[in-house]
UniProtKB/TrEMBL annotation:
One of its GO terms (molecular function) is 3-oxoacyl-[acyl-carrier-protein] synthase activity. Residues 3-435 form the Ketosynthase family 3 (KS3) domain. Keywords: Acyltransferase, Transferase. Its EC number is 2.3.1.179. This is 3-oxoacyl-[acyl-carrier-protein] synthase 2. One of its GO terms (cellular component) is cytosol. InterPro entries: Beta-ketoacyl_synthase, Ketoacyl_synth_C, Ketoacyl_synth_N, PKS_Beta-ketoAc_synthase_dom, Thiolase-like. One of its GO terms (biological process) is fatty acid biosynthetic process. Belongs to the thiolase-like superfamily. Beta-ketoacyl-ACP synthases family. PANTHER family: 3-OXOACYL-[ACYL-CARRIER-PROTEIN] SYNTHASE, MITOCHONDRIAL, POLYKETIDE SYNTHASE-RELATED. Signal peptide: none annotated.
Amino acid sequence: MSKRRIAITGVGATTPLGLTAGEMWEGLLEGRSGIDKIQSFDPAGFPCRIAGETPAFKVRKHVPKTYRKATKLMSRDIELSILAANDAIETSGLVTKAAGEGEPTIDPERFAINMGAGLISCDLEELAPCVAASLTDGEFDLKKWGTEGLNYMTPLWLLKYLPNMLPCHVGIIHDMQGPSNTITCGEVSSHVAITEAAQVIARGDADAAMAGGCEAKVNPIVLLRQCLLKRATSDHNGTPDEACRPFDAEAKGSVFGEAAGLVVLEELEGAKSRGAKIYAEIAGAGASNSLASSYEHSETDGKGIEIAIRKATKEAGIDAGQIDLVVPHGTGIPADDAAEAKAISRVLGERTAEVPVWPIKSMTSNAGAGAGSLDVIATAMAISEGKIGAAKNFEQPFDGCELNISKQVQEVNVRYALCCGYTFGGQTAALILKNTNGEV
């Protein structure tokens, strides 16, 4: 990155496995799935009727009393982000305007925030009256929509659905006045957001940053699109915990869900001086783009993923021989898993059969822009705790998959770990995390 080294000192997550990163970690080690029948709307008629939904919560209980009026203008994505941010701040031990006791331990003007966000879909209950008022003889009338339908829309409606509202609310609550940005790059949004936040600290424009991403994909419109693209599995509506099967020969598609994942990044020496727990160091990052002719899938040779990984290892100053763990994107979509497996295998070379690979979406679901942050958090905690769990639902690799998929809970001594991701729009990204315990 630069002369300033960047550490992960806090982890926060709101996932189908629980409302904290600690609960997610416990679930991952237990091999517990957060995927179940959809509860937030009636999925009858959908080929896929399962998703990863978080446990119930009331966002009003997670914001300062003086900020509760603002919860009326929060989309599901914003709500999930607030819980994850609170968790990340708490685990970091930092004091902010809204967390901890005493004066803030980081100058608000030196506290940045960078978040990945997805396509925040509207609640159908909000749109239904507008559409109903825009019908002429049973058909949608665009002119009537403009003259009558929009009158049923609250004037502040858009403030719930702008992607930059996620870091705005979190930043206001915790008084983060440093550089802020929002990344909208699909499933690699979190990877890129964490990379950019690390770069902000590395170049001296901040001393700490909140970074990660969130997306709530449990929405009829979102699910319908994935079903039409044949990316969502329809084979396990009766056995949802068996549905998502990354890299498995019986995989039939992905399961989508909702989640937020955020990490606190700090300049390493500053974090050490205040006695912070160091989960891992951000050692390198890379990104690329390689759009396939069939846009709903990754390119078949995984070249874009490979480029991103090689850029990340180069920036970290390491070779494949120093990677001890891979947490891949692994969605359970056969064509995409095959492309990713090829890319990882080419990078690892002769160590492919040796390095453990731990896909987690079979338990967390595919949360779009939030997915990469969960991978990074799982990786950081694996480095810190010295263990990884089993890849749920992995029984037999598909033909041609040579990856060493973790089949049981195991202790690991990680020097460097790789997280990589891709979108079906062709964007790819990778992060290298380093173990700083004893400067291995």
